[in-house]
Amino acid sequence: MSPFGSGRPTFFQSISRVPDWPGYSHSHDTDTSESEEFVDNRQEVDDDEKLNSPSLSLVQRRKRSSVLVILGMSLVALLGALVGWFGAQKLSINKPAAISTQIQQAQVMEKPCGETPAQARARGCYFDVISFCWLPERCYDAELSQRFDGLTEWEWFVDPNRTQPLTHQQIMTGEHTGLYVNWEYHLLHCTCMWEKMHRALMGPHEKMAIDSYIGSYEHTKHCGHMLTSDRDVQLDVINTIILVKYPDCGMS
């Protein structure tokens, strides 16, 4: 049975609504006794009694008061320093994030590759075999796309019965849509799309933007659902349709 339920399978989008991720809670058994949960305060009471005792000399009381004043001032100074430090840390963390968001929003390219393969080629776009998206250079991870392409001998078919295969050369023209691929293609698409997001956000690939297709939170939830369900489906089962897409480059 298809992992997408009845009807036509779709490419990277489930027919049924992907359920929300279940919450996880960990129950830890504890055997903490009452004596471990409450701090013994008997010494503090004894100290207070000694402080107020008439047997203490005036000098001793003044000395004790001076020590308490110094300790109090030290604590206030320490708290002030900590507040200032945390405030500085907050500014140093949030300010670059805000600037990054502004820059990212300003660099969004809407439909940079047009809406047809001819328009995409004319605009210097690349066809990504992982996602079947036409992408400008700023959103195209050539290294990752080539690595995915070489993982195995991928197969693409015009029909679900595997009677009309297409060659790799035909696929890379980006002109064929609505093609059928196997379950393995779908799963590895998901893992590679997550890797692309990480490469774009971190490390030496930080200058690459994320396209609006893989940047969608719904896509992330969908891939999570696909990777954790239907584990009994064989990898070579044809149950996925590929559609050519022309997403925006960058996230708003």
From TrEMBL:
The chain crosses the membrane at residues 67-88. It comes from the Eukaryota. InterPro entries: Phomopsin_biosynth_assoc (IPR053008). Keywords: Membrane, Transmembrane, Transmembrane helix. The keyword Transmembrane applies. Residues 16-50 are annotated as: Disordered. This is Uncharacterized protein. It comes from Metarhizium guizhouense (strain ARSEF 977). The lineage of its organism: Eukaryota, Fungi, Dikarya, Ascomycota, Pezizomycotina.
